[in-house]
Design goal:
The protein is α/β, with parallel strands linked by helices. The protein is built from 12 helices and 16 strands. The protein is elongated, with a radius of gyration of 23 Å. The longest helix is centred in the first third of the chain and has 14 residues, at about 5-15. Strand 15 (about 340-345) and strand 16 (about 350-355) form a beta hairpin. It has helices spanning about 5-15, 50-60, 85-90, 110-120, 130-135, 140-145, 175-190, 195-200, 230-235, 250-260, 280-285, 300-305, and strands at about 30-35, 35-45, 70-75, 95-100, 125, 150-155, 160-165, 190-195, 215-220, 240-245, 265-270, 290-295, 315-320, 325-330, 340-345, 350-355. Bound molecules: NADP nicotinamide-adenine-dinucleotide phosphate. NADP nicotinamide-adenine-dinucleotide phosphate binds near residues 173, 197, 296 and 301. NADP nicotinamide-adenine-dinucleotide phosphate binds near residues 167 and 197.
Length: about 350
Amino acid sequence: MTLHEKYLKQCFELAIRGRGRVSPNPLVGALIVKNNMIIGKGWHEVYGGAHAEVNAFLDVKEDVSGADLYCNLEPCCHEKKQTPPCVPLIILKKIKRVIISNLDPNPQVAGKGVEMLRQAGINVITGVCEADGELLNRFYFTSQRFQRPFITLKIAQSIDGKISRSRDRQTWLTGEESARYVHQLRSEFDAVLVGANTVTSDDPQLNVRHVAGRNPQRIIVDGRLSVSENARVIGTALDQPTWILTLDAASPIKIERLQKAGVRIRMFTDRGNGQIGLLDVIGFLHQQRMISVLIEGGQAIFTQFIQDGLFDEIIILQAPVVLGSGLPALGELESLNLRLLSSLKSGNDLRLVYSRV
Ligand SMILES: NC(=O)c1ccc[n+]([C@@H]2O[C@H](COP(=O)([O-])OP(=O)(O)OC[C@H]3O[C@@H](n4cnc5c(N)ncnc54)[C@H](OP(=O)(O)O)[C@@H]3O)[C@@H](O)[C@H]2O)c1
C-alpha cells in the first residue's frame, strides 16, 4: 500500500463516522499531513455542520503551510449552500498538495474545485483509492448522477425462496445476527419502504432497536389507503417520520385521521392500472432529498422494483430452513442476471449481496 493509499483509507474511516447523520451530503474525511506526521484530522459530522476539511484545520495546533491535505472527496468551491466553500480556505492555509479519491459529481463542483486549487499553484492528485471511495459514497453519487436514491432490496427468505408461510401472516425466518444487521442497514439508509399488505400482515415497526443509530423515514405504498389506523407504524408516526403514498381517489376522511396521527400523505395520479408508478415513487423520494432507500417487502413490492429495473443492490438473508409451501419472494418476472458481490455467514443465516450486471 502506498503512503497516499494509507492516508486515504484513514480518511474513509473518519468519513464513515458521519453515516446516518450527514445525508443528503456525502461522507467525507480529511487528514492534514506534514513531514509525514498527521497534524490534523476531521470529518463531516452532521448535516449543515462544518465540512471535513474545515474540521481538520480546526484540529491543527501548528503551522499548516506547506502541508498535504488528504480528502476522499474533491473539496467544494460553490457558494450557494449552508457552509462556506473549502477551496479558498485550503488556498489561504498555503497547503502544498491535495490528494483525493473522487471528483464530486455535483454539477456545481465537478472538477471545478480541483481546477481552482491547481490555478492557485497547488499540486492536486486525484483518483487514489477511487473504487473504495465510490463504494463509500454510493448513495450520494447515485443521487447526484441519476437524480434518484440508491435502491437496495432486502429479502429474508428460506432456502427454497419463500418469504412467509402465507401472504396474510408473518413468518420469522432469520436469526438475531441478521436482525442486528438489518437494523444497522436501517440506521444507514434514509428511508425504508414497504407495501400495504406487509403493514397489515406483519405490523412491523421499521425502526432501529437492535443497534444504536437514527431511525429512517418510513414509506408505505398503499394505493387504496387500506392500512389500519391501529398499525404500529401509524401509532408512532409522531416520533418517526412516516409517509403513506396513495392514489388520488383515497378517502379524504381517512386521510384527515391519519394526518392527525402524524402521518404524512402524498397523493399520486393513477397511471391507469390502479397502481402508483414506481418511477413516481422514486421521483418523490428524490424530491424529499432522500439519497437511499431500503425496500423491505413484501412480494408485490419486491417484484415490481425488480420488474421495473429499479434497484442497485439485492441483499438476500437466507435462513437455514425449507418452508415447502408458502409465498415466494418474487412473483412472475422475466429472467435477469445479477453479479454476486459477497457471501457471508450471518449467525446461522447466509447473507448474499448482489448487484446489477
Ligand atoms: N421475508 C421478507 O423479507 C418479507 C418482508 C416483507 C413482507 N414479507 C411477507 O410478504 C407478505 C406480504 O407481501 P404482499 O405481496 O402480499 O404485499 P406487499 O408487497 O407488502 O403489499 C402489496 C400491497 O401494497 C399496495 N401496493 C403495492 N404496490 C403498489 C403500487 N405500485 N401502487 C399502489 N399500491 C401498491 C397494494 O395495496 P392495495 O392492494 O390495497 O392497493 C398491494 O396489494 C406477508 O406475508 C409478509 O409477511 C416478507
